[in-house]
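ok trying again, last paste got cut off:
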Amino acid sequence: MINYNLSKIKAVIFDVDGVLSAETIVLAADGEPLRTVNIKDGYAIQLAVKKGLRVAILTGGRTEAVRTRYEGLGVTDIYMGCAVKINTYEAFRQKYRLNDNEILYVGDDIPDFEVMKKAGCACCPADACPDIKRICRYVSDRKGGHGVGRDIIEQVMRAQGKWLTDSEAFGW
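nice, full thing came through this time. structure:
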């Protein structure tokens, strides 16, 4: 269980590589990185968006397939090519007038470190690097790309009384 008052979370921000996709990627012949995604993560993300939780993607990657995937789930805040993630995090926080303690951030590696130190609730997958695990309130038992998004969103939504509460939960 996440050791945090999840009822005050208004936004969940996800890194992609190593969090919503596995830490290993296949390279296509043209050099384009190909990722896998978890269907249960997708279900949880789209439900969270429908229920009013602000979900954002914050990634250093630039693959348009990532944008297509998460836009298709209703995510409108997709930040790609983020070389220094703390700058994008601050802009997102200010855009929605959020306090750090209202934001849960899920990352797995050193580029996420600064943001995870600032966000109110830092979480990571089971296979995150040791430096990230040390600063997290919660280390999921799921590896990146294998349901960590679902694990975390489900806990937030259950804490807020928004998980499986009406017919919206039973469709895409």
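cool. Helices lie at 39-50, 64-72, 85-95, 113-118, 130-135, 148-159. The first strand starts at residue 11 and ends at 14.
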